[in-house]
Amino acid sequence: MARIPPAEAKGNPELEEVFAEIKATRGFVSNALRTLGHAPGGLRHFARVGEYVKYKTDLPERLRELTILTSARGVPYAWSHHRPLAVQTGIDEAAVDQIGEGKVPASLPANEQAIVAFVMALGDLKVTDAVMDAMKRHFSPRQILDVAMSATYYGALGRMVVALGVDVEDSATLKTERDWQKGRT
Questions:
Q1: Which of 116, 120, 1, 133 is nearest to 66 (CA)?
Q2: Percent of the chain whose predicted confidence (pLDDT) is above 70
Q3: What is the dihedral of CA 144, 146, 149, 152, to 10 degrees?
Q4: In whole numbers, what is the pLDDT of the chain averaged over residues?
Q5: By the 8 A CB rule, do 154 and 78 touch?
Q6: CA triplet 115, 123, 108: central angle to 5 degrees?
Q7: Domain spans of the chain?
Q8: What is the percent of the chain where pLDDT is above 90?
């Protein structure tokens, strides 16, 4: 149950503008971002980082979604959004389930295993030289930073969602998100 209700844009020109920007980049305004709408200026900047990590990194869609999914572990709100999006990109459901359990799936290719291990280690603040070396074998410095920024953004969003008790969208809204994603890939 929401501890802070989502902000309503009606009658608030600044928030109406921010929500319009978000809708243009994502197809809808999620409950998470609507809740952050109580601070429209902060939301505007936070949403721009989210737009970058979701749509403008130097990673193919599957690797972006793998990064986000791994960051979503333990956050039911984020998991409900990104589990189906990860499967939609072709990540096997058994591998998705293993990630949810905190495991690096052996069935994934080595580059994807490196991402999962890196994101999990980053979340625990325990990125070892071995984990970083695996990333360096498969990815450019920009791609490594894109993974790190994505994981950090979704980690921060997940913490706020949990703290604020943000409600998961209904199934029709989640379908809208999946359809929007299909149209962008």
A1: 116
A2: 95
A3: -70
A4: 93
A5: yes
A6: 25
A7: 61-184
A8: 82
| Banded pLDDT at 185 (limits 50, 70, 90) | low
Q: Is 57 helix (H, G, I), strand (E, B) or coil?
A: coil
CB 32 within 8 A of CB 166: yes
What pLDDT, on a 0 to 100 scale, did the predictor assign at position 1?
Answer: 80
Tokens of 13: 């020109």
CB 161 within 8 A of CB 75: yes
Taking only the tens place, the pLDDT of each residue in 48-90 is 999 999 889 999 999 999 999 999 999 998 898 889 999 999 9
CA distance linking residue 174 with residue 84, whole number of Å:
9
Q: What's the whole-number mean pLDDT along residues 123-152? A: 97
Give me 184's structure tokens. 């962008």
Residue corresponding to tokens 């998705």 = 96
Which regions of the chain does DSSP assign to beta strands (E)? none
Name the architecture of domain 61-184: Up-down Bundle (1.20)
Report how far residue 87's alpha carbon sits from residue 69's, in angstroms, rounded to the nearest whole number.
10
Which residues neighbour 54 within 8 Å (Cβ) at sequence distance 6 or greater?
A: 26, 64, 68, 150
Distance of CA 31 to the CA centre of its chain: 14
Comparing CA positions, the residue from 133, 112, 113, 7 lying closest to residue 59 is 112
